[in-house]
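Hi there,

I know you've been waiting on this one. I reran it after we fixed the sequence typo, so this is the corrected version. Both the input and the resulting structure follow.
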Amino acid sequence: MEIDNNRRGQIIKAAIKRFSHFGVAKTTMNEIAEDSSISKGNIYYYFADKNALIAEVIKELLNKFEKTVKKRLASCTSTLEALNEVEHSKRKFFEKYYMLHLFEGIDCSAGNENLKQIADTASEFGANLIMSIFEEGIKRGELTSFNTKEMAELYVESSRGLFIINQNFPTKRITIDIKQLDSIHHKQAELTKIFIKALSRD
């Protein structure tokens, strides 16, 4: 039996919808099979187990996020604007897919190596994205010269830390607390201003 990429994509699309609305833990492979109109047996032909499917869902959403944010960054004219655009894009994705908690840490407690690798890839992508923004700011003469890799990691970890400390989104809920998300987003925006002020030539 040959791999049918259209069918594989159909399964991933159904999984994204289920995971986003009800969370990974509460979603069964039977439900994904029903939603995708593909038998459970055929789903296991494409994905060895649920963790393998979760990993592919995360990869798919990371690709979507990367395309979206890079398109938006193309029109940014300052480091502050670029960093704010990244945070705005992260928020929009979080609102849509928050049951996955995609961009603020992936649960790898089960010890699944595939998921751990995807989590590492997501973290690396985030740090590299911020590093490239800092490097552009230095090239423009907007920022002082500094170790962009170390500063990008510090920025990403600080922003994520604010989210983790302040968030309280119960995994059983299928709606999100917008006021709480607004508060976290505001704190992250203030953190961004502090970073830019410290790194600016002015």
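Quick highlight: The chain has a mean pLDDT of 84.

Best,
R. S.
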